[in-house]
Amino acid sequence: MIDILNTTQLSEIIKKLDQSTQPLWGKMSPQHAIEHLAMTIKISTGKIIVKRYTTLEEAEAIKAKLIYSPIEIPKGVKNPLLTDELAALEHKDMDTAVKELLNEVNYFKEYYSNNPEVLHTQPRMGDLTHNEWFTFHNKHFTHHFKQFGVSN
């Protein structure tokens, strides 16, 4: 599994992606995946505020399974923030999207070093701590890099 705070590892994996890389499953292009990961980092640092779409009991069960077990994120899992149609790309090109993602990862490190106790809501798991977000991001990034066959 990737460690998003290992920027050398993260950069090496991202370098294996280009716009022509085809997904092994799903509809996302590499740039869609990179922008999606950046959006998720923004949610974890409170730059984007979302609500919980599950009951408290469902959220706790998902968190127990996804955060506190070795399970990987399954292929085809539905994100309540996304529709069946791909979102329009935010950035003009992959390089710009990658720069934003790496900036957001660095902000994540800085943000939680200054705000270690803050909680932010994840749409399916509810409020997550820094460590829970870190575990989620590691699994989430790994999931999408596997989607393109570029994980370690």
Can you walk me through this structure?
It is a single chain. The mean pLDDT is 93. It is globular and about 40 Å long. Strands 1-2 form a two-stranded antiparallel ribbon. It is mainly α and 152 residues long. 49% of the residues lie in helices and 4% in strands. The protein has one domain (32-80, 87-147). The protein is built from five helices and two strands; from the N terminus they run ααααββα.
As a percent range, the share of strand residues is under 5%
Number of strands: 2
If you compute it from the alpha carbons, what radius of gyration comes out, rounded to the nearest whole angstrom?
A: 15 Å
Q: What order do the strands of the largest sheet run in, or round the barrel if closed?
A: 1-2
Number of domains: 1
Rounded average pLDDT:
93
Strand pairing plus helix content: what structural class? Answer: mainly alpha
Q: Describe the biggest sheet?
A: 2 strands, antiparallel
**Could you name the ranges where pLDDT drops below 50 across 5 or more consecutive residues?**
none
* Percent range of helical residues: 40-55%
Cα separation of the termini? 7 Å
Total DSSP helices: 5
Helix/strand order: HHHHEEH
Which term fits the overall shape? Answer: globular
